[in-house]
Amino acid sequence: MAAAKKTKPSAAKGPAEKIYDSFIVGAGISGIAAAIKLKKEGYNNFKIIERADRVGGTWRENTYPGCGCDVPSSLYSYSFALSSKWSHLFAKQPEILSYLEEVSDNFDITPLIEFNTNLQSATWDESRYLWVLGTSNGEHLARTVVFATGPITESKTPVLPGLESFSGEMFHSAKWNHDYDLTGKRVAVIGTGASAIQFVPQIQPKVKELFVFQRTAPWVLPKPDLPLGDRVKQTIEVLPVIQRGWRNAVSRSLNVINFGLRNPKVLRPISTAAKQLLRLQISDKALRKAVTPDFTLGCKRVLFANDYYPALQADNTHLIPHGLVEVDGNTVVAANGERHEVDVIIWGTGFEVSHPPIGSKVVNANGDRLSDLWKDTSPEAYLGAALENTPNAFLVLGPNVLVYDSFIGLAEAQLDYIIDGLKKVKDNDIGKISIRSDVLRQHNAKVQKHLKGTVFNSGGCKSYYLDQNGRNFAAWPWSLAELKRRLSVFDLDDYDVTYRNEAVLSKVS
């Protein structure tokens, strides 16, 4: 691996008007929670920036037909802001976005956010123990930074031969073109992941022909979704204990699933039952064989839907159990040579997760741009939060904290840890805090060792949990309870700590 190019830290332009105790980048699930928790701890000297014109993160960006959550809404909500307004057991995107906006307003976070502001650079200035943050609306200084930019923010579109020759409509599911009418069109959907199984049933009745390109058949289980009528919602509102009981029951059931993911043998009966269920769901033997997964349940993300298989069996739908390899004018070409002329290509090809886009903006204490360091591998962090040689900065929902649970719950647990650290930095007059290299190495070596026996590494699939070298950069190998235990206290002994001296104070006062 070639040495990463060194970048000289930039100095602040002129006298800084203000030095923030903390700077939050992003106003999605994590950024909103970070701001609320900071306020609760009495912090007022912090700033939040958001590149868009409203809060919501991935729930603002993804507006494709049928978009919703595959974690029950009782759990996919903040522990400090339970809601009785959900219309279904599994909430849809508009409701989740509305919920996030409501929480941001109710906790007086929205007025604190500087919208339409992009982070352009974040450079550590060792001479002053400060982060220099260049944004589209000016430069800022902060003692600490929380990168709450999320793991699924940048859509991924493959580069294919002949793609430039396509003259029809083309867009990614995360950037859905609602102005384009799909009625009567011939549509190619590329990918059969979590987004595609939601929007395919929505567009199938409208289009003339639907060609679904499937590289790998996913496990798709029935979704136990039910509407929640006004009477149910009123009961939940009057008796919050019901909602907390519901939330705890969902959490316990997900813990059972997590146990199975760590112990794949436990999942074999479920896999067998799911394959038997396919016999009832799909009558055509050839189609049933094509959609039957050839890897252990849980190796790739388990999907939940009740209308996906019926959509695949519609007369106007054609499942192509191969990847798209070429585009020739308006003809899409599958790996087996099959060719179809289409009017529209919709990419359901997911997001860039192994190389978080925030890495291209951050320059660490050694002058290395993080994206350069991650070029030939995927990032490592301590408890998914602290990056090597990146002082006074924390990443929310970073590497190796993925547990089958609510992202909101994981973000809350991490933020409790991070904000405990921010408090200790402030209360102890710490100038610089950086995760110790030996702690980071030992932690990640242990994580990778214990991941070997999980379904993610041994289930016989190639998933987005694995980087280009086959290293699992995403999953947590133990229980959610163990993750929360490890995140319960920020231990200064795990960090190299430098206290601010009078010389540094005189420069920044």
TrEMBL record:
EC primary class: oxidoreductase
Entries under SUPFAM superfamilies matching the protein: FAD/NAD(P)-binding domain
Keywords: Monooxygenase, Oxidoreductase
InterPro entries: FAD-bind_Monooxygenase_sf, FAD/NAD-bd_sf
GO terms, molecular function: monooxygenase activity
EC numbers on record: 1.14.13.-
Classification via Pfam families: Pyr_redox_3
Endpoints of the signal sequence: none
Record protein name field: Monooxygenase, flavin-binding family
Native species: Alcanivorax borkumensis (strain ATCC 700651 / DSM 11573 / NCIMB 13689 / SK2)
